[in-house]
Protein 1
Amino acid sequence: MSLCMQAATYLAGAPNTIAQPLVYTTRISFTLNGRDTELEVPNHHLLLETLRRTLDLTGTKDSCGIGVCGACTVLLDGEPVSACLTPTVFVNGHAVETIEGVAQEGLLHPLQQAFIDHGGFQCGICTPGQIMSAKALLAANPRPSVDEIKAWMMGNLCRCTGYYAILESIQAAAAALAPRAQC
Ligand code: FES
Ligand code: FES
């Protein structure tokens, strides 16, 4: 038997020694848009991929991927966070809200309606993140000044509208929500 044949015969009978990558996972439970949710997630997964790929919630957008643009903003216990930087295991025991949870019983949230009425979006890539950030703002400060809106929304970039329509949309939503805030 030639050397080549001997080698081929040896390799054919050899166990597969190519190491498979180990993936460590963790079971987590959290509230997602008001619903109790349990998942087994790889420890290295980020919330953005868990939402978009595992849970098929594609309203949260994937844009810069490095925490700069705000397109992936979701609320974690009511606070805006970049889902592209948040390890999914960190949400264990917490409440996550995405754009899919903003409309209630088929009715748009006043922020969503205001973005439509005031032209706060064009392509829409930034819009879910804008709305989630603005929702957190109005929860903390129901009647923000223009400067307060600008400062709060600084982490949400838009390449389409310019920012005036977004500012107007948030102001309009604040006005629409104000009577409820006083109740
Ligand atoms: S995609 Fe997360 S901040 Fe840009
Ligand atoms: S509407 Fe296109 S990026 Fe903002």
Note: Strands lie at 25-32, 35-42, 73-76, 79-82, 95-97.
Protein 2
Amino acid sequence: MARIELEHVTKRWGGYYAVDDLNLVIENNAFVTLLGPSGCGKTTTLRMIAGLETPTTGRITIDGEVMFDSDLGINVPANKRRVGFLFQNYALWPNMTVYQNIAFGLSNINESGAAVNEKGEIVRDETGKAPARKLTKEEIRRVVDRVSAIVKIGPFMDRYPSELSGGQQQRVAIARTLAPGPRVLFMDEPLSNLDAKLRLEMRSELQRLHLNTGSTFVYVTHDQMEAMTLATRICLIENGVLQQYAEPLTIYNQPRNTFVADFVGNPAVNFVAARGAQQADGSLALEMLEGRKAIFTPTEPVKTQDFFQQVEEEQQAADSKKREAEKTNKDQIFQCAIAKVEEEPEEDRELDEEDWIVGIRPEFIRISDQGAVEGEIFSAMPTGMETTVKLRVGNLLLTGVVFGGVIYQIGQKVRLDFEGENLMIFSRKNGRRMAQGTLKVL
Ligand SMILES: Nc1ncnc2c1ncn2[C@@H]1O[C@H](COP(=O)(O)OP(=O)(O)O)[C@@H](O)[C@H]1O
Ligand SMILES: [Mg+2]
């Protein structure tokens, strides 16, 4: 059992806000990934929850128990938070066997009231006030047996780390972390030292581990694919600021802004600039794709005025927040890259409320003879299962994915359009997504 709550947690070094007013609830038994580019504040966030870093301000609770509160002056030390860690460098003790490595942390559990049941689980009494005693040898054996069965390293108990493969070592490290019965498991890029194939395998095992232990997992990664595939919820951070906290498919289909849209998805989303206004029927009449007319029809009714007003109010609220120090790492609106064949100078004008970015995931591009848009194959990369194509439309480049073993010639003329209801429209001015919908090129 572990439900973690962060309220207004900030960590700054002088004017540098590594974590900026973070509010987050991690539900019991969740598998939450902290995702974002290098330096965005993932590790700092994890370390603050674990008690390895002291927040500048804010409050952190685990299961309703206050672990940190800057106003109350409470700061529970890491070793009293009953949490486990798995880091990128999971150094095992080289002079100890697998068994000894796993058992090591158990010999000094003389936590109040701890005992081990028949299944090898550590049971703690509710008060936590019972007299401390060390676990017996037999109890330790039961725990080691249980956790080594979970990660399937039972047959290797007497080996030394140097006699194990990278994947087996990783499993020993996991077993060692699980042994003391942590209520939360914190992992900071634990797979980044492994080769690609093993990483994929360990991902699947971590998913099983999460299921089998029923613990809460908080997992740091900069790899969007890892976050998408593992998490029950993704917490996407940029420049210390929470961008979106949602289930993976919500992040993918309903990204809050252009930064989020760009960060998840491989190949990345296509951004296409558009200009136009909302019509009486709610659709947007756009000019895009080098002078073509198109209609974007939102799936859910939306009024552009309401959207701009709401974003404005949110920004004002954010700007008027009291700060103890001026933020030197300023927040900026993400500049989305619009792919072009030939670089051309940016138009030098003020963006207004008729400037949009249409977000088109590669799988929404349909190549067919009926397509409304003329294009040309710029490059084609078949993998066997699918082909990633770059399509040239005038000076614009769009990336599409075609399933199956289709062969395209470079320079081949094709026609295309955009299918589905999950195209996205963002304001270019504020970067925020206004709606999902369909896009019809006239
Ligand atoms: N002890 C420190 N003193 C000053 N700046 C730090 C310290 N630790 C981390 N930072 C800065 O805080 C930012 C966030 O760091 P970190 O949480 O490690 O990022 P991530 O794990 O997302 O890559 C980085 O810009 C980093 O340089
Ligand atoms: Mg880090």
Note: The longest strand covers residues 16-26.
Protein 3
Amino acid sequence: MEMQILRKTKWGGFKNARQMEKTQVIQIVKDSGLKGRSGSNYPTGTKWESMGPGERYLICNADEGEPGTFKDRFIIENNPQLLIEGMCIAAYAMDAHKALIYLRGEYAYLKKGLEKEIEKSNKYLRQIKLSIRIVLGAGAYICGEESAILESIEGSRPIVRKKPPYPAQAGLYGKPTCINNVETLANVPLIFSGGWDKDLLLFCLSGDLKKPGVCEFKAGTSMKEIISAASPSVEPKAVFFGAAGGCLPYRKFENLPLDDASVSENGAMLGSRALIVVGEGRSMLEISKVFAEFFVHESCGYCTPCREGNFRILELLKKIMDGSDTLCDIELLRKLAPHIRDTSYCSLGRTSTNYLIGAMKYFESDFTKLCR
Ligand code: SF4
């Protein structure tokens, strides 16, 4: 069966939305139940409705940097028209005439294709006096955060802004700005062209699988059913939810419905629905070291707990791996991880040790067996 996100709407959603008052378009999006698909789950219609007065900006967040996440890339590669159409409906509803796509630096190769798609859509853009510009990021994970994107576009160091004010009141260049992610915007035309199923979500499957890739499943489908669709190459041992969402042991949770509430109740976060499958035989210690290297590299360095803490975590993990660690250091690791979570300035630091907290909770022996 064709994936919903690959449906060709041929601008039918935009044409239908254009027949309506702007307020009616927003009401339909509110009633549809569409929520931010980046993992934020913020109601999209409510976000559109909260825009302040005056000149407004729409930004499409295509800075997909969470490890194991590649669903936005999938949409841009396979159905870019749906994204541009969704941006047009959003801009029309919010009366925004300037839009930007903030494209992840590593996705530079997608820029040409997107520009062609914008060119092809000129007729519709002109109808609502909308210009769409692509801004290429420089590859920083922190720019997935909406206010860091604003800093980056303005040419500043991308440090997360203190809120309030929220971007809807004072965003890009101080103007009201709405930031929606690719998957969220791509679902908008489907709402207006009929037959949209709000429960169908994209999942990114990677790791020890024979058929990794992007799949579409209903929210609440069991972990086992989703992972089985990608044919595990060995018996799964654990599943990481990206790097920021932590992990759960597979055997204990294989029947867990994968929806935000069920995953959160068990101490992890579904987030952007990146399932990284770890097969039996792999060491959670070694995988934790890979994640620690990632966060040391991506920490922007602005605050001490994240900058120094993640560096120390990597140091301790390396020590354990070369057999020179003691159980005392394991205890230190156990204290340091939640401390970084609780004291870091922004969400990057606050989620940067979830992988470790989960791995140490469920797979303690992977960490202690090498200690003196
Ligand atoms: S938690 Fe601090 S150091 Fe880490 S990314 Fe955020 S501001 Fe930068």
Note: Residues 142, 160, 299-303, 306-307, 344-346, 348-349 surround iron/sulfur cluster (CB under 6 Å).
Protein 4
Amino acid sequence: MAELIKPKRKLKIILGDLRHTVGGKSIVIMPVGIGYIASYARAQLGAENLDFNLFVEPDAMIEEIKRTNPDIVAVSNYCWNAELSGLILKIAKETNPNIICIAGGPDFPLKDERRQKYLQDRSQMDFYAYQEGEMSFANLVGKIMEGGDLADLKREPHEGMASIDPLTGELVAGQPYPRMKNLDNIPSPYLSGLMEKWFDGHYAPSLETARGCPFTCTFCEAAASWYTPVSYFSSSRMEQELGFIAERMAQYPNVLLAIHDSNFGMYKRDEELAQILRALQDKYEWPNAFEVTTGKGNYDRILDIMAVLKNKMTMSTSVQSLNPDTLKIIERRNPPPDKLASIVAEIKRRGISTVSEIILPLPLETKESFFAGFRTLLNAKIDQILPFTTMLFKGTDIASNESRQKYAMESKFRLLPRQFGEYSGHKCFEIEEVCIATNTMSFEEYLECRGFSLIATILSNDQFDVIPRHLNELGIDIYDFNIYVWDLVRSGETKISDLYLDYLKETREELWDSSQALIEYYTNEDNYRKLLFGETGDNKLRKYRTKAFLEQSEAMTELAYTAIRQMLGEKTDQEIINSLSAAEKWVIATRHIGNNINNASHDEISTELYLPYDVSAWYNATTNTSLLTTYSKSVHYKIYSNKKHIMQMMEDGKRLFGNNISFTVGKLLINFSVKSFWCKTELATEGC
Ligand code: SF4
């Protein structure tokens, strides 16, 4: 029997940009994407004709679908929520088969035959809006408003939409819409009140200032040719929108602003936006942190913009690989090593940490080239080097059959960190396909690279920022030091060795031959409980790095100093050994972040520390050219924790990420330095 759409009337539409909440909130960004969709549709079709309700929480959205029986349910599909989105549409169809279900977003194949299979496998999706969603969604909703038969609508091609013809089972794909040139055609969802319910301190405001990316990195969905031209929101629109947001966010100074541009800071126009943001910082003392991907070019402009923003924004120094052959294949351009080093030096001069991401294993990368790249990054003095396993996103060149065959890319499936849940009795898991070996890097070599990366990631964090200072003074190469510590850990003789082995074991065990095998395993109640209690299913690098800081900070510090002493050898000057020992004691006393967090709600912590060197003065000397040994004098320190600040950080963190301390601290450390959890040092008396 034909499914009938009622004649023209006010349509009730429920939109979802869904996040799993069972394992603790992971994505805490306001859902501006669906805000733009609703805002544009209202502008085109009349706000009086459309009744929108926007959701991020799956249970609340399901309840609303069941309670109100809407005309349309639409969801955005990203790699972190595509299964959840599909489940919600399924529940909508079970509630009422006449609800029209629409999905949109980047998690959709590029080629027609794959699109057909994708939609055939998901019969609950009546339509898929591909490429920019605003125009295709509004166009389709306009047709639905006119009334008609759903089956007929699915047989007809609509611009920017794909569907399956119910009679033939074939793909029906409309022509793509031309790119929107002036983004101001999308009215602000903030100014129109669509985002109001998320201004409660639990969510970070987010927006685009520009859309498009001129680069063509083959591992990235944004490299598609249709996305190449860059379009902008005007500066006056941004000023209005950001002013509105900042006024509301002034009461949540620790909540960041997310800018979704692919290359923020790279364009001349971004200088104007920086001035607008700076005026807001001066007036509202917000934003104080940014989640932003900065441009892959015009680095000096980005540095200038950072300065305007009080250096609260940092620059992405991600390189993905430093192997020239690999870079050619993935069509990635990095700054030359000397430019990278000078950028990093400038960022550090301003007291900001630098982070660089690398992807492993990429085509033509070998174990040797990976380690050589790591050496370059360590020598460039990048603070945090974060290795990611190569993800094979739908619709990217690197995931194409040609690329898989050419480079013998071996893939496995794993759960996206903490992206799972149970909704209306259905367990749901987000799964990613990752590459774990190629014809130039075996799986065992991949594991070795990951193992080294864990140790280097821990050591390159601010938590151990004194170590490079020692290495520099003592003439020890930082890469050699990292390898030395790694070898000690791998020997199995250190206190950290168990943590390292657990990490490798989990890295092996998180991989499955198929999505189905993973789903079957975790659907079992006992295994599902392991996910619920955080025993497994988290981002391994983040989990073990945080574990090292929270549970093993003393052992890790001792290990680092042991490595330095052993590398120096027996002939070293006793004065150097004594000064290193003083520094080690000071680091242990001030940076035990596990203790500081656990005791933050108790009475004031204050300990006394007597040292023969003024390590704190040495560490704090901003233009430090003097060796630690020249700070020889007896000092008496009072070490106390900044309880109020730590409690505020943890309160904000728990509100955003839940009560699991390890997970919350791990997430906080993405945007805030570990220094926030350290003790302060006060000179009690100068020594005798
Ligand atoms: S990785 Fe960044 S620069 Fe490269 S295509 Fe994607 S968004 Fe553009």
Note: The two ends are 95 Å apart (CA to CA).
